[in-house]
Amino acid sequence: MRKLKILIVDDSSVMRKIVERALRQAGLDLGEVLEASNGAEALVAVEKGGMDMVLSDINMPVMDGLEFLKNLRDVACAKGLPVVMISTEGSEARVVEALSLGARGYLRKPFTPEQIKERVVPLLGDPQ
Amino acid sequence: MSQSMKSASTTIVPFDIHWKPLLECATLEVFELMAGVKLELSASVTENSGPQQTAMVGMAGALCGMTTVRCSVGTAGKLASLMLGGDAGSNPATARDALGELCNMIAGNFKAKVNTLADHCMLSVPTVITGSGYSLDAAEPSETIDVTLAFESECICISLITHT
């Protein structure tokens, strides 16, 4: 079984590290963990292919997480790629907007490792 | 324009002194979940020694103002190390980033606890200033709620400043 290739998108390097640590604490067998500091960088990373999941913030400079979701629909190799939004913006309107744009899950900061395990892990199929 | 931005331009929510316990709760939750520390509220503000750091997150829409978190540079570094492990906070850029994120999460967690703000208030990305002997003055008229936490021998000051 191959290890998971994950992309973490957040303009804060501290948050990217915290999310990665939470994923490991949730028991995920991580292989390559890629980082992007905004939606534009994330699109470039996804277009290279092979990604198992994206976890993205919403409020970011250059391209925010919702714009990233809109643009991701045009990326052929991103079909079926699970994207989970992780944001301080936990309002119902934002959650609905993100889900309508294709996000598969939503976590509000601050989060617990248990929430990562409950909401992120089920979205990952068994990597072959 | 996003749905949330459209709705954010609707009704202005007036300042409410009853927000103080909500800000206290939001703050304690963030420190416990993200830094793993159970801090206690402090009735008095002790003067921190050395250079200070202040993280600011702007708020717009139904509530116009900002949330700030102020502490010493040393405390910001310790908080970053608690969040990331090891001595991550010895890197000044990491310490600034961590304080900004704490401020961001406090602002977000607070507004999520106020029904009239949750869907109608937007947050900016954080800004962090560092220095000595500076003051932070909000445009008048404004109202402020202050929350002070004791951290080791120093204090961490959280303020919600609203333009009324």
* Count of alpha and pi helical runs of chain B: 5
Percentage of residues in helical conformation of chain A: 25-40%
Main beta sheet of chain B, described? Answer: 7 strands, antiparallel
The helix/strand series of chain B, from N terminus to C terminus, equals HHEEEHHHEEEE
Q: How many extended strands of chain A?
A: 5
Low-confidence stretches of chain B: 1-9
- Show the largest interface: A-B, 27 and 32 residues
How many angstroms separate the termini of chain B?
Answer: 26 Å
Gyration radius from CA atoms of chain A, angstroms: 13 Å
What structural class do helix, strand and pairing data of chain B support?
A: alpha+beta
Task: Output the keywords.
heterodimer; A: 128 residues; alpha/beta; five-stranded parallel beta sheet; 5 helices; 20% strand; B: 164 residues; alpha+beta; seven-stranded antiparallel beta sheet; globular; disordered N terminus
Describe this structure in words.
The complex is a heterodimer of chains A (128) and B (164). Chain A is an alpha/beta fold and 128 residues long. Chain A is 36% helix and 20% strand. Chain A contains five helices and five strands. A five-stranded parallel β-sheet of chain A has the order 2-1-3-4-5, with helices on both faces. The radius of gyration of chain A is 13 Å and the shape is globular. By secondary structure, chain B is an alpha+beta fold. Chain B has helices at 3-8, 19-35, 73-84, 92-112, 115-118; strands at 40-41, 52-61, 65-72, 121-123, 127-131, 142-151, 154-163. In chain B, strands 1, 2, 3, 4, 5, 6 and 7 form a seven-stranded antiparallel β-sheet that branches. In chain B, a hairpin with a 3-residue loop joins strand 2 (52-61) and strand 3 (65-72). In chain B, helix 2 crosses helix 4 (92-112) and helix 3 crosses helix 4. Chain B is globular. The two termini of chain B are 26 Å apart. The relative contact order of chain B is 0.25. Residues 1-9 of chain B have low confidence and may be disordered. The chains are: A alpha/beta (128), B alpha+beta (164). The A-B interface holds A 11-15, 17-18, 21, 59-61, 66, 87-94, 96-97, 108-112 and B 2-4, 7, 29-30, 33-34, 80, 83-85, 88, 94, 97-98, 100-101, 104-105, 107-109, 111-112, 118-120, 122-125.
